[in-house]
Fold each of these.
Amino acid sequence: MAENPAFAASGEEAITRRIDVTPNEIPGELSPEELEDYYDIERTVREVEKGDYKRIALQFPDELLRDSVPIFRRLKARLSPGRELYVLADTSYGSCCVDEVAAQHVDADAMVHYGHACMTKTSRLPVIYVFGKKPVDPEDCARKLLKSLEASSTVIENRKAILRHDVAYAHRADKILEKLKAALPSSTTLQYSPIPLTSYPVTSSSTSAQDEVLKVTNGSDQTSDTVAEEGTPSEIILYVGGESLSLTNLLMTHSHCEVHTYDPNTGTVCLASERTNKMLMRRYAVVQKARDADVFGILIGTLGVASYLPLISHLRKVLARAHKKSYTISVGKLNPAKLANFLEIECFVLVACPENSLIDAKDFLRPIVTPYELEIALRAPQSWTGRYVLEFEKLLAEAPDGTQNVSADPEKGDEDLDQPVFSLATGKYRHAKRYGAPETNANLNDPSSALVLRDQDGTVALKDSAAGAFLQARTYRGLETRIGQDAPAVLEQGRSGIARGYADDHPSGG
């Protein structure tokens, strides 16, 4: 009989599984000299020796693992004795983030991050970034970006332009900047600051966390970041790179700017900001679903980004003030099967780096929102200007006590407890549940609001439990203990042997 692969997989699929990557995402076959240059072997050795790091973790994304062994050998041969190197393959969350959790398993005091990086500030370890060096033609880039500006009838005289690019083109950014300055009118101001190749944790003795993250995330000084961030229509953003999460986040956070992109892989240009409104509309639809939720799950999508713990505490305060129930969950890399196990949760809030925060939840059972979208959903007036924030520090700076503009106000008491709420997602009225309400108005005899636990002292009813209410509504609630009601079973001798041929003590049975 043929073996059913659904129940008895041989494991071949896991070995032969192919990793889906976008074209030109990985370098081709590199000669020894090209590999040295592409992965900045000499610079990495200098930075390690300069910092006197003893245990260094090398973090590779899946698509670059094939080069991990030759890189390891070259670094090991050139570093001074007494330094240990460890290759990190499978990341805890996104490969663009620095995996400080895996690095702590080997007690590393520094990391080298290879490939694409989101450039979020770390909270514990110094990081040496090796982006790789993708090819780009600076002259063709400048010419076609200028052509895109002319085709869209953009007035560029006496305006401010900001150059942004994917991190893989940082090695040619100076040449691109030179060609763009020569192509643009002299009255146009072109701003750019290099992306840093190293990053250090935020400390209390340094400048403020917000300024530090802005410098590293955007790769420019505070003045140009503030200009781009405000998103006034007078700015033009020139982006060098293909379709990616970096470009998506740029469009979302700079929705008022005109963004022209150049893709070095195909040599094409386009006005990318034309689709920004559609992207914001899709996110606004998710926000409306979050307004209807009463039970939230705070998903931990990072353990390395600075200020992630204060943000989680901030979200708990906001949800508690709005009389919402919240659970904090860490499941590693997200997939629909994992989150489907938490059926009592009606909406998830993902705390992750900017590039991993925007999740297209079509395949997920529940909507997934960002912390900023959650705050919009909990605001009493249903309004959104289109402003979008993904940085943790900005959210905390704008609401330091975690209680601004939420829909519920405990000073008003429970006068609106039974008032129905209109849902824009369903087009119907609904009665919102309120968790953390005063006990005087709560119906403690309602079996749907209590979960009965049995322990040595008897039974205890837990009020205000969303999981308990969900369990009471289910037809099957697990096996009952029935302590003291059923007589203990008689112990019998079991079978012995191995699975293919047990020795049965009762041959008459078969």
Amino acid sequence: MRRLRLAVLVVAACVIVWAVWNWGTIKGQAKVGAAYGAHITCSCRYIEGRSMDSCETDKEAGMEMVRLSDDPENKRVYASVPFLAEAVAERRGTFGCVQLNAKEIEAL
């Protein structure tokens, strides 16, 4: 039993060290995934006129963690990776869908 506890402790320590070592990469990929999801879904929803359910099928492999929601009144799509990143894209007239920056997101 003691060996099992030690093995679990060593594995847990290795996972923690790996996560800390790769935190910047993990966070960066989450930001890119959220931004991509928001932009692509905004275009799908408010330029192509498709439903959110239909737009969900446009997610690339590996984007299972990206959660999407829309605000039809303001023509916005919100995307997030829980606890790591969030992004918002908004339809702006002839410009199409535009990513909102951090200050614009805070103001919402």
Amino acid sequence: MKKRGLIVVDLQNEYLPTGKLPLSEIEVASANAARVIADARHKNIPVFHIRHEATNDQSPIFVPGSDGVKIQPGVAPADNEPVIIKHHINAFRDTDLKQQLDAQSVEELIIVGAMSHMCVDAIVRAAVDMGYPVTVLHDACATLDLSFEGVNVPAAHVHAAMMAAFEFGYGTVKSTQDYLSAV
């Protein structure tokens, strides 16, 4: 079996109902992510936390030093777990994420986090392009309602479309329970 690594993408306070960019079902996704993190720690699977931060304090969201930029307490990193700060949608871009994965001999990725249609999407596609087998835990990810040219798309549909795309061409999509129950 290939050595797994868990990547927790942007589960930050900004996405909570009290944040500036609340996501649909974020509390459920965060609770499931916490279960997966606990399992990874128990099994000595390396956990990598991604934290988005704007490049200046004039940004409307993810302002450096703000409460919104902090990782949610329920999924907070342990002392030995790296936090990769990113300034772009793709967590591999201009970060040392790839080097950190290599340093831990990680060959396969489990991905949870936010937002399904942005940062989770970007990291899944980039990871697969780099040759990593990827599993996305769909109920440990969250997104929000979107609209385009007068078409309003509920978060559940945005999320389902992303998970369907991942499953169609990028990797495995499982529920948290199915992942945790697997031998």
